[in-house]
Amino acid sequence: MKKKYKIDVDCANCANKMEVAAKKTEGVKDAVVNFMALKMEVEFKEGADPKEVMLRVLENCKKVEDDCEIFL
After folding, report:
1. CB 3: neighbour CB atoms within 10 A?
2. DSSP of 16-60, one letter per residue?
3. What whole-number distance in Å separates Cα of residue 30 and Cα of residue 2?
4. Residue 5: other Cβ atoms inside 10 A
5. pLDDT for residue 30
6. How far is CA 4 from CA 1, 37, 39, 72, in A?
7. Staple 12 to which of 25, 32, 35, 44, CB 3.0 to 4.6 Å?
8. 19-48 pLDDT, tens digit each
9. pTM assigned to the model
């Protein structure tokens, strides 16, 4: 399953850090961050709970870019 989320991030480099952090999160099959559109598309692994996984994605993104936001 794929879902799109609105994000708030200041620069393209920060968006790249968010993408890498999201991809490393358990339950995420793939993630793509579009800085220009301020969107994140996340593909979840089979059987993963998107709400639970996205809380971990947000937590991991905050570790690499503390002023970023994902609107869940």
Report:
1. 14
2. HHHHHHHHTSTTEEEEEEETTTTEEEEEEPTT--HHHHHHHHHHH
3. 9
4. 20
5. 98
6. 10, 11, 7, 9
7. 35
8. 999 999 999 999 999 999 999 999 999 999
9. 0.94
